[in-house]
Amino acid sequence: MNVWRSIRRPLAQSRLVKAATVRVLKWTLEFVRLTNRRVDATDERAEALRHAPSIAALWHGQHLLAPALYPRDVAMAAMVSRSADAELNAGVIEAFGFQAIRGSGGRPGATRADKGGARALLALKKALDAGKSVSMIADIPHGTPRDAGMGIVTLARLSGRPIIPIAIATSRRKVLEKTWDRTTINLPFGRSALIVGKPVSVPPEASDAQCDALRQELSRNLDEATAEAYRLVDTRP
Length: 237
What we know:
- With 237 residues, the protein is of the alpha/beta class.
- The chain has one domain: Glycerol-3-phosphate (1)-acyltransferase (3-Layer(aba) Sandwich).
- Helices cover 43% and strands 18% of the residues.
- It has a seven-stranded mixed β-sheet with strand order 1-9-6-2-5-3-4, with helices on both faces. Strands 7-8 form a two-stranded antiparallel sheet.
- Helix 5 (86-95) links the parallel strand 3 and strand 4 (99-102).
- The longest helix has 27 residues, at 208-234.
- It is globular, with a radius of gyration of 17 Å.
- The model is unreliable at 106-115 (pLDDT under 50).
């Protein structure tokens, strides 16, 4: 980990290295997608992503394969952290033809402006108003895993667009147990599932208490979708 921290910034700043790494990562995700047979019936559920514009919500650590599985003919923008680590993530998203919007909602007690959160939310709302769907990681980086933050709820309230919980799973995977979000690396030669959970809509007049209740509902719906995705890929046909 210390070695990665020492080289990640030079990697992110080198255009040549970044371009080559992004290309390899894109090919890797494509290979994983192509070598995992989609579980029956999940293709139909994934069609809900075509009902643009909406806000796709995923959990941290469960989202790595998402750019390769999203429908290519759906205009989409994805929120990506402004950290050095996320430079490659943004490049991969753009390599798949989607727009990367940099920013983070931050943690309680931190101002949104510190991480470009306010600007990012405005950019996401602008994308929704233009007819694009957007994608956000629901939980806060290095916060409580699988506990949706208020940023995605705020975007839904401001834009009037529904939040669509998305869960992705593969039968062959490597879970990094020591990471805060238990990051899951999807592996080839297995089965895959993309599950669309119960949507959550936030009225424009919603009070703080209502927004918090809807935030908790989103967390439950994402958990349910995630559990279903893993159940499907882990059940032998």
